[in-house]
Design a protein that fits this description.
heterodimer, A: 300 residues, mainly alpha, MetI-like fold, two-stranded antiparallel sheet, 14 helices, 2 strands, 72% helix, 2% strand, B: alpha+beta, 9 helices, 25% helix, globular
């Protein structure tokens, strides 16, 4: 049935003779909902930011307290008066470097080999790598302490060096490093790339170093960053094995001079942030590729 | 089954390849079951078969990427069975895109040369020449992610050819591409293979590709070679029921065999060696061997017509309820609308009949 269109079907008649488009019922709701969502997001961000930043702010406030309510940086200036602190920083950085290299040497060839040659073992390797997550640090220390005692007694300075902590840290970092490298390996067809490299004449070491590693460098970088972060924050095992790493030194210093101890903690945190930023920003392959694929075929 | 090459149609300078009684098990699956093939120097053999028939396993075994449990692989008379992949000098193009994403097209092509100790100038020169050969002369500085799938496969072909391989292995290199690019690249592969004269094994599940490319086509099923022959022979004279069924479109028509002849739709058709009979048989008849003509009062009727460009396929219902597909010139399609009564006959082209079920 056709008939004359009524104003109500299109909109109410406007005083000037034109038609006003009637606002559909509920049209304001999406905007209100959007405003609510935005407010909710901001609230969550503020809460999270506060949760993360408030302790840092408190540390800054505490470590800059001077005499009679004044503010100064004397606690920060005093850091270098404690040689233990500098030694702890150097030791922790050395352990971090050893841990990163050890972890990569252990994990990358193993995972590539598993993907390319024995994919059915992938689950087993994953299980083994995730195992340290389920084992409390104290259990690891109790289990491994006799080995460290043996090394300390029989291997001289090498056996007693805190750098041997890198062996344990490699194990502790496995769950995080495995996930990071695994995600890298899943972004490329490792098996086909390895087959292609092998068919062109590359040995297995060359295949891994020249073809696989450059294409999973994002995963390798993430694994390295996680390893550095873990080593710089590890306290329990170092303390129980009586090695003076940065975290242990900070704890001991806290008993003598809490202001300097907190200053060192904050400085170490800022240093770790800067270090991780530098690694992720400036390491080779850290940049994202932005070029897009060309779809057309060449004229031939 | 052993198959001996008759050699390619044009003189080439490749090497001979022999698979000798090869076996490969994956658990209970017998992926290669006594496979033996002789490939002549410079010949292009296409291995055709359904998924899981063992064709890729055979190619990977030749490339050294998979082991064999028994049998031998001879290349130019030398036993290569236990030689590692990186010592075989074989160029492989894979089904999946396999260019190294961290290298430009030029670096990808030059990679094999770098491993062989070629100097930088020689590498660049040879990479440029090979990229020219595959029609990608100006693409040396592009990364794989800046190229289309077809371009990537061309670069992969250039990379495989740049090392001047003894044998070129192509593992379904076109299957990830769209139809137009696929046809174009297929012709280029053939042109390039003829120009460089490298012995080539091409694995595919696409029979059109295999028949168009191969000097000979080997049809595989369940790890065995069913038949290896020139495309025309394979199509016209299948040696086994599987080949007759697998290669090309076929109508399975009932007939009665006797004395080397089977009577199908009133036509006496010669039987190929090995056919079943005497007695009731099923005869595979190609659509192009079926003739139909409109005729008032004929008992068969057109059911459906497909227009395929230069030709058409017509589905016809026979009086007993059976269906037959006929291939006709596109010009005849207009007069064959659904419901048209038609007379159906078949050409007396030899068929490989099997016992009626």
């Amino acid at each position: 049935m056709s008939g004359p269109s009524t104003a109500s079907s299109l909109g109410a008649a406007a005083p000037g003779g034109g038609a006003l488009i009637e606002r559909p019922r509920g049209a304001g709701r999406p905007r209100r909902r959007s405003r609510l969502q935005t407010s909710g997001r901001i609230a969550i961000l503020v809460l999270v930011f506060g949760y993360l930043v408030l302790p840092l702010f408190a540390m800054l406030e505490f470590s800059t307290r001077g005499d009679y309510g004044s503010r100064d940086l004397s606690s920060y200036a005093a850091i270098f008066d404690y040689p233990d602190v500098v030694d702890g920083i150097v030791t922790s950085l050395q352990i971090a470097v050893l841990t990163v290299f050890g972890m990569l040497l252990l994990l990358v060839p193993t995972m590539v080999w598993t993907v390319v040659r024995v994919p059915r073992m992938r689950r087993v390797v994953e299980f083994l790598c995730l195992l340290p997550l389920a084992i409390p640090a104290i259990v690891i220390v109790v289990g491994i302490a006799p080995i460290y005692r043996f090394m300390g007694q029989n291997l001289g300075a090498v056996g007693a060096s805190p750098l041997t902590l890198a062996f344990i840290d490699i194990i502790l970092v496995l769950p995080y490093a495995y996930r990071a490298i695994d995600s890298g390996l899943r972004t490329v067809d490792v098996a086909t790339l390895a087959d292609a490299a092998r068919s062109l004449g590359a040995s297995w070491p060359r295949t891994i170093l020249q073809v696989i590693v450059p294409n999973i460098r994002g995963g390798i970088l993430s694994a390295s960053v996680l390893a550095v972060a873990l080593v710089l924050g590890e306290y329990t095992i170092s303390s129980l094995l009586s090695f003076h790493t940065l975290q242990v030194v900070i704890y001991l210093l806290g008993k003598r001079d809490p202001f300097v101890s907190v200053a060192v903690s904050l400085a170490a945190l800022v240093f770790a942030f800067i270090l991780l930023y530098v690694i992720t920003r400036f390491a080779p392959g850290a940049g994202e590729r932005t070029d897009r694929a060309v779809e057309e075929e060449p004229a031939s | 089954m052993t198959a001996t090459s008759t050699g390619p149609a044009t003189p080439r300078n490749g090497v001979a390849v022999q698979f000798q009684d090869m076996h490969r098990w994956y658990g209970p699956v017998h992926a290669l079951d006594g496979l033996s093939i002789d490939i002549a120097p410079g010949e292009l053999v296409a291995l055709l078969g359904p998924s899981g028939c063992g064709k890729t396993t055979a190619l990977r075994a030749l490339g050294g990427l998979d082991d064999v449990d028994a049998g031998r692989i001879l290349v130019d008379g030398k036993d290569m069975t236990r030689v590692p992949a990186n010592k075989r000098n074989m160029g492989i193009v894979f089904q999946a895109y396999s260019l190294f994403p961290n290298m430009t097209a030029g670096d990808n092509v030059a990679y094999g040369l770098r491993l062989r100790g070629a100097g930088k100038e020689e590498r660049q020169k040879r990479a440029a020449e090979t990229l020219d050969l595959v029609g990608l002369g100006g693409y040396a500085n592009r990364y794989p992610h800046q190229m289309s799938g077809g371009q990537q496969q061309r670069v992969a072909l250039a990379r495989a050819l740049a090392i001047r391989p003894q044998v070129l292995l192509l593992d379904e290199p076109l299957s990830a591409l769209d139809a137009k690019v696929r046809r174009q690249l297929r012709e280029e592969i053939r042109r390039i293979q003829i120009s460089v004269g490298t012995t080539t094994l091409f694995v595919t599940h696409d029979q059109e590709e295999a028949l168009a490319l191969g000097d000979r086509v080997g049809v595989m099923s369940a790890g065995r070679l069913e038949q290896i022959a020139t495309p025309a022979e394979l199509y016209d004279r299948p040696a086994t029921a599987f080949v007759a069924e697998f290669v090309g479109l076929t109508n399975r028509l009932k007939g009665v065999a006797g004395d080397g002849i089977v009577e199908v739709l009133g036509t006496r058709v010669p039987l190929l060696a090995g056919s079943a009979g005497p007695g009731p048989v099923t005869a595979p008849v190609r659509p192009e061997a079926v003739r139909i003509a409109p005729e008032d009062g004929a008992p068969a009727h057109v059911l459906a017509v497909s227009f395929l460009g230069s030709l058409g396929r017509v589905q016809v219902g026979l009086p007993g309820g059976d269906l037959v597909v006929a291939q006709v010139p596109a010009t005849d399609v207009v007069q064959l609308t659904p419901g048209t009564a038609v007379r159906v006959t078949v050409l007396p082209a030899p068929v490989f009949a099997t016992a009626a079920a």
